[in-house]
Amino acid sequence: MALTRRQKEVMEFLDGFIKERGYSPSFEEIASALGLASLATVHKHVQALQAKQYLNRNYNHSRSLEIGERYFAEENARNPKPIDRAVPLMGRIAAGSPVEAIQNPEILHFSDFVRNEGTFALEVRGDSMIEDHICSGDFVLVEKTNSLRNGDIVVALVDGSEATLKRFYTEPDGRVRLQPANSSMQPIFVNPENLAIQGKVLGIMRKY
Question: Which of 78, 99, 131 is the last residue of a domain?
Answer without folding.
Answer: 78
